[in-house]
Amino acid sequence: MGKASKDKRDIYYRKAKEEGWRARSAFKLLQIDQEFNIFHGVKRVVDLCAAPGSWSQVLSRNLYVPAKQSPDCKEGDLPLIVAIDLQPMAPIEGVIQVQGDITNARTAEVVIRHFDGCKADLVVCDGAPDVTGLHDMDEFVQSQLILAALTIVTHVLKVGGKFVAKIFRGKDTSLLYCQLKLFFSQVTFAKPKSSRNSSIEAFAVCENYSPPEGFKEEDLYHLLEKVGTPSGADDLDCRSGWLEGPNKVYIPFLACGDLSGYDSDRSYPLPSTEGGSYRSLDPVQPPIAPPYKTALEMKKASSHGASADTIRPSAES
Ligand SMILES: C[S@@+](CC[C@H](N)C(=O)[O-])C[C@H]1O[C@@H](n2cnc3c(N)ncnc32)[C@H](O)[C@@H]1O
Question: Which residues of this UniProt protein bind S-adenosyl-L-methionine (predicted)?
Fold first, then answer.
């Protein structure tokens, strides 16, 4: 698809470039905030799986920049934004970057250290594995990423805090809902208007972090395993809900936005520019070390006569 054609078919892709966002996903977080007011009162935030950084940009523009420009704000009062990803990303004003795997305990430790004993008001996670197209498999890997994010949440989120995580809707969605409901009094699955209807993605918006009484972080997985099992029913289900039977949970699902917003499944005419012809903008910030870079290097080298297996992946060279 040519750039102009993509601009026409994907209004949020075009708008992202016009407004200086690194990815169209920025609009998903903005639309979730419009509906749930998740940024209200937030001073400390963790952005998990943040690259290329459009959610971190949203956090910077909505929290850090206004505070910095306020004449009453002192240096120590500036919002703290910590962003983590496997991939490096170009710097963003007011955002501390950690490169690491969120499923690794050491990454969680680095994040916790940045908070220096204080707790976060908000944790967001837009993590996605490389999608295989096998829905059950993709949903499973995605749910593992969410559970890794929940591990970090249990260590860094303050009681009453919020957590927003990308989910893939599938057969285990109710289980995931019940697991999240163990820790948050309000859990809503939301679909922002900028997320295409054809995509199985949605976002779990979890409000009012309130772990079960006596909860210890090291017991997280043991507790989650009990959700939906007969043995766990007695002590957990009153909080998290039932997976089966007459009292089965119904997941609150909300389509964010109204009819006045752009529809991500529609094509929109391109704006006419001076001179009549439309000029597509370049992406705001191309990824600095994308996973496909090695493949491109190998392809380039093989077309110049070198054997592909003599090329070292760029991370090792
Ligand atoms: C959809 S992108 C995130 C887009 C980002 N929110 C933005 O607005 O620019 C998903 C990201 O998840 C990251 N990711 C996937 N698995 C991860 C893991 N185990 N640890 C850290 N990051 C991970 C990928 O590297 C990728 O950058």
Answer: 53, 55, 85, 101, 126
